[in-house]
Write a structure and sequence with these properties.
- The complex is a heterodimer of chains A (771) and B (284).
- By secondary structure, chain A is an alpha+beta fold.
- Chain A contains 19 helices and 29 strands.
- Chain A has a seven-stranded mixed sheet with strand order 3-5-1-12-9-10-11, with helices on both faces. Chain A has a six-stranded mixed sheet with strand order 7-15-14-13-8-29. A four-stranded mixed sheet of chain A has the order 18-26-27-28, sandwiched between helices.
- In chain A, α5 packs across α6, α9 runs parallel beside α18 and α14 packs parallel to α15.
- In chain B, the strands form four sheets. A five-stranded antiparallel sheet of chain B has the order 4-5-10-6-7. A four-stranded antiparallel sheet of chain B has the order 11-12-13-14, with helices on both faces.
- By secondary structure, chain B is of the alpha+beta class.
- Chain B has ten helices and 14 strands.
- The chains are: A alpha+beta (771), B alpha+beta (284).
């Protein structure tokens, strides 16, 4: 029985779908309620804090021994900024926690928080990229006089030559506006104090429990052994929950200070104003194209608004350095000159959000290809054909090595599926009836499953990447898999059980995966960056393989055969080409209870393995067909097609779910979601009434086709797939809108392409609704 | 995201409710569907000291038609209009409009009267009431007061209701079989408040418009009835050319407000398009 490749219903679902999930807010019991008093201003000096008499309120002065959050990159161009857990002297963004209230219930805590008055001598806020980078701009932090916290540069040797040889130079300015990951469950934590041991257990809605334990212990100057971090069921993260936030440090500090349990359940306004944002980026590109459409060279000036502080542990370098390294994407680019800056402002901190820079860089490269195709008179598919990577391994100008992929084949498959000639005929016919349909392509690479070398290359002080997995088969032949990854909705426990089931010849239902508890799992890096299936999966396969080896040795001994002739399948160990079998449960029992018989084997079935891969590239082609209402600027997506290559699929249903969810967020990026600050740094989109997530009414059915390129870079043969949907969709949707509006000669270079922005371009192009 | 403390009354009769209103006046808010009030309280944008919950007042839960038109009691939910509440064009129009109001669960709770009392300028029912020349019946211990819709809205979230008055009934004039209607709304997502919308009703006889109602919403601090444009329709055939010219006049006539979702220029474009489409539908 092969479990890999089957759409097994998720083992997680019975509890989650029946309302038996257990989230932080389900666990708070009688814990005291914590409420943070947040800055109403974006920038200024704190001159006084007035606390209502009798209330339990703490300020930065009470927490003066707590170290600031200060993630480090070992790069000469990086300026480390410390984020105080509660500031004493000044505020740096609207929504920053200034004081903390503890009360018996949440409403009372909010009442008290309303009565804490903070006097702030306000100073002009620096909100957007242009203001922050303008000559003579006031510094957000005195440590960074130019407001640039990190700056990467590179230029290949033949760069100037490429531009000298170019037949056409295409220059574009592109913009992606700020977004929130907007997980269904916000942040939240319950810190429980154990009076006997003095230990604190922090149950929190997070993606990286071990990292959180390290960060909090460092900040509070306590040994990690005194803190246990549990990530229970987590209602979505998308990267927003992988950073260390001041609130969690304060919770543990409060539990130790007050010697009681305290809980903070973030509300949506806090999540919008004070958790983390992403995608606030402005890119200027110049592409040097040969007459035949070959991209000879690319020059890029990349600016990322990283907000007021640097996210821990990945730092504010995550967006700018990812953009620098991966801008060439799926294209075989010869020469590359780039400057990429992370710019600080008086806004909420940037942290990873599904895709990290790649939605914007894919949007940028795919718009560049379309514009170049038009200028050179080459078909949009053909210009990609001439530039896509075709030989492997491929080394990019930034030194990334791409393993085997199917860039060209995925695009050809998608173009064939959409039946382009038939679409063009329909498009022409409908235009005559004043209906405007368009088709848009997006081809991209998705770097996934990368281990320590990738993070070390960025100069990170804390280098994540590997995973450790402990695999134990008990005497009844059932398995516990302890992982350092921390899945929060991805169905990873099911996928790992399928993988391990095949290694050990048992049903996935006999495999229990334990995650998200620092007392019960090996140190690990959590779940982010499309890494868990590749890395935790790889370590699981290796650990289970070691257990399988032991089972085979025991079976060989008991059935008087060679271990090489033993197969594990359907709960049985079988001697090849014979009817001789033993139940795996019996072997497991023997491993524990008859261990004296097996010379050279240690007792029991407990194995541990580590996997730390270099990384593997998934790839995909997205195609959108849209209809644009030229009078309202409204866009309806008629069809959305994905041809994805994520290597071998462990559970195709789960993979499809990851792609569909990612595409929905990508469509949101393309058309809907935008965090808007006013010039004073007040967030104007602090509720779901103003920050527009698409609903099921706006998201079409997503048609998915798979290709399976087998890569030597992944022991499971699986590539990562968590971010691809979000990466590719914005480019496909906007390219389709531009195609629909091609009779009017309109180009769009801004995300999201809102009806207002589309209509503005149409108005400029003379499409009037008033005669 | 918890409301500040408030007292809560759930009167068993209308007279009891009116007595509470008279006693607490500006300190209290009426709770009917709560679909706008409760979120506002959770955000602490509204901090009423007292809530008077009228959901037990069966005497306000009615909807009926007579020769004068349609009478909508204060507890009539949006969802009541999913089916046609009255034969003829009015019932069909209300049913069509109701489907643009928020989402199904919200329509089960929110009320027609609550929408009017809340006076959101982008509310569909406020446009319906304005364009169709509704009358509003306000009750207090001082007696009943009938308010013409033209005098009812004072601006965004502001009405002519006195602090001791309860919006008890909306009266929509009857619409005979000769009427035809059109409604167009543009919003960012299904169920959102309108960025621009228009409602048109035409009584057409022998191909000629005899009476016209035209209103727009989501454009200013309240829904607007465009009476001068109605006059331009009456006495003529509703031809595409005439509709186009009315739409252009609407574009010139309105002075839209801007916000983060729509600039004044964009709203003006939407209003012209909405007027054109609503009139085209009504004339079809």
């Amino acid at each position: 029985m092969n479990w890999i490749g089957r759409s097994l219903p998720r083992l997680e679902d019975p509890s989650l779908l029946r309302g038996h999930g257990s989230y932080v807010a389900d666990r708070i019991g009688k814990a005291a309620s914590v409420r943070f008093v947040r800055s109403p201003l974006a920038s200024g000096a704190i001159t006084g804090i007035e606390i209502p008499p009798g209330a339990t309120v703490f300020t930065g002065r009470d927490l003066s021994d707590v170290k600031p959050i200060q993630p480090i990159l070992h790069r000469p161009d990086y300026i480390a900024i410390g984020q105080p857990v509660l500031p004493v002297d000044r505020v740096a963004f609207c929504g920053q926690a200034i004081a903390v209230v503890v009360a018996e219930d949440a409403a009372l805590a909010e009442d008290i928080a309303d009565q804490v008055f903070v006097d702030i001598d306000t100073t002009d806020a620096i909100v957007d990229l242009d203001t922050a980078l303008a000559p003579g701009a006031a510094p957000v932090h005195p440590e960074a006089p130019s407001n640039v916290l990190v700056e990467g540069r590179m230029r290949t040797a033949g760069f100037d030559r490429a531009f000298a040889d170019a037949a056409e130079i295409v220059a574009l300015d592109l913009r992606s506006h700020r977004q929130s990951a907007a997980p269904m469950e916000g942040r939240g934590g319950l810190a429980e104090y154990d009076g006997v041991s003095g230990r604190v257990t922090l149950t929190a809605s997070v993606q990286m429990p071990h990292m959180l334990r390290t960060g909090i212990a460092d900040a509070l100057g306590m040994p990690e052994s005194e803190l246990r971090v549990i990530a229970p069921d987590v209602g979505g993260g998308f990267g927003q929950k992988m950073s260390l936030f001041p609130e969690y440090i304060v919770l543990v500090w409060l539990a130790r200070k007050l010697k009681r349990s305290v809980a903070w359940i973030e509300d949506r306004r806090e999540n919008f104003t004070a958790s983390a944002h992403g995608r606030d980026q402005a890119f200027s590109l110049r592409g040097a194209f040969a007459k035949d459409g070959r991209l000879l060279g690319l020059e890029a000036d990349l600016r990322s608004n990283v907000g007021a502080f640097s996210c821990y542990p990945v730092t504010c370098g995550v967006e700018p350095l990812m953009a620098l390294a991966e801008l060439p994407g799926p294209y075989d680019l010869g020469e590359y000159g780039v400057r990429s800056r992370g710019v600080t402002t008086n806004t909420c901190m940037m942290a990873p959000y599904r895709g990290v820079s790649r939605p914007m860089l894919t949007f940028s490269m795919e718009r560049l290809m379309e514009v170049a195709a038009k200028r050179l008179g080459i078909d949009a598919v053909e210009i990609r054909r001439r530039n896509l990577i075709g030989t492997f391994p491929h080394r990019s100008p930034t030194g990334l090595v791409y393993d085997e992929g199917s860039y060209l084949q995925a695009m050809e498959t998608a173009v064939k599926a959409i039946n382009l000639p038939a679409f063009r005929a329909r498009q022409t016919a409908l235009r005559k009836r004043n209906r405007h349909l368009g088709v848009g392509l997006s081809v991209f690479s998705e770097r996934t499953g990368y281990g320590t070398p990738a993070y070390a290359a960025r100069g990170m002080d804390i280098v994540p990447g590997y995973e450790i997995v402990d695999c134990t088969m008990d005497p009844s032949g059932n398995v516990v898999l302890r992982i350092g990854s921390s899945p929060h909705g991805q169905g990873l426990k099911t996928s790992l059980a399928q993988l391990v089931g095949d290694e050990l010849g048992i049903e996935p239902q006999r495999i229990r995966v334990v995650s998200g508890d620092t007392d019960a799992t090996p140190y690990g890096w959590g779940t982010f960056a499309s890494r868990s299936m590749v890395i935790a999966g790889g370590a699981s396969k290796l650990a289970a393989g070691q257990v399988a080896g032991k089972l085979k040795a025991i079976a060989a001994h008991l059935m008087e055969a060679s271990p090489d002739d033993i197969t594990l399948e359907n709960g049985l160990a079988r001697v090849s080409n014979s009817n001789r079998t033993t139940e795996i449960g019996a072997l497991a029992r023997a491993a524990y209870h008859q261990s004296h018989k097996f010379k050279g084997l240690s007792p029991g079935l407990h194995e541990s393995a580590v996997y730390d891969p270099g990384g593997t590239f998934s790839n995909a082609c997205h195609v959108a067909i849209v209809e644009v209402d030229i009078e309202t600027g409204g866009v309806r997506i008629e069809r959305f097609l994905v041809v994805e290559d994520a290597g071998v699929l462990i559970n195709p249903m789960i993979v499809d779910g990851q792609i569909a969810g990612g595409v929905a967020q990508g469509i949101a990026n393309a058309l809907f979601e935008e965090m808007i600050y006013d010039e004073n740094g007040n967030l104007l989109t602090a509720s779901f009434a103003d920050y527009l997530l698409p609903t099921s009414a706006e998201i079409p059915e997503i048609e998915i086709t798979h290709m399976e390129t087998v890569s030597p870079e992944s022991v499971t043969k699986a590539k990562g797939v968590g971010e691809g949907g979000a990466i590719g969709a914005p480019a496909a949707v906007v390219n389709a809108i531009v195609d629909a509006l091609s009779p009017f000669g309109i180009e769009l270079f801004e995300l999201p392409a809102t009806p207002q922005r589309i209509r503005e371009q149409l108005r400029k192009a003379g499409v009037s609704v008033h005669g | 995201m918890k409301p500040s403390a408030f007292d809560y009354f759930r009167p068993a009769s209308l007279s009891e409710a009116l007595a509470l209103l008279a006693k607490y006046k500006d300190d209290c808010k009426i709770l009917a569907g709560g679909q706008s009030l409760v979120p506002a309280m959770n955000f602490r944008l509204a901090r009423p000291a007292i809530l008077i919950d009228i959901n037990d007042l069966g005497e306000l839960d009615y909807i009926f038609a007579d020769d004068n038109g349609l009478h909508i009691g204060a507890l009539t939910r949006h969802a009541a209009f999913h089916r046609r509440v009255v034969d003829g064009p009015l019932g069909a129009l209300l049913s069509k409009v109701a489907r643009h109001i928020a989402h199904y669960p919200i329509r089960q709770r929110g009320t027609f009267a609550g929408s009017l009392a809340h006076a959101d300028p982008a509310s569909e029912w406020c446009l319906v009431a304005t364009a169709l020349n509704a009358a509003i019946v306000a009750k207090s211990i001082r007696g009943d007061r009938r308010i013409s819709v033209g005098d009812f809205f004072n601006g965004t979230f502001a009405t002519d209701l006195a602090a001791d008055e309860l919006l008890a009934e909306i009266h929509l004039p009857a619409m005979g079989p000769g009427w035809r209607t059109g409604f167009f709304e543009f919003s960012r997502r299904a169920g959102d408040f309108a960025l621009g919308m228009a409602l048109a009703a035409l009584r057409i006889e022998d191909g000629i418009v005899r009476e016209a109602r035209l209103g727009v919403g989501g454009v200013a601090d309240r829904a607007i009835r465009l009476e001068s444009l109605e006059d331009g329709l009456v006495g003529h055939a509703a031809s595409p050319e005439l509709i186009d010219s009315i739409a252009r006049e609407a574009w010139a006539l309105v002075t839209p407000v801007g916000d983060i979702h729509a600039s004044p220029e964009y709203r003006r474009d939407l209003i012209a398009t909405a007027v054109r489409r609503a009139l085209t539908e009504a004339a079809a």
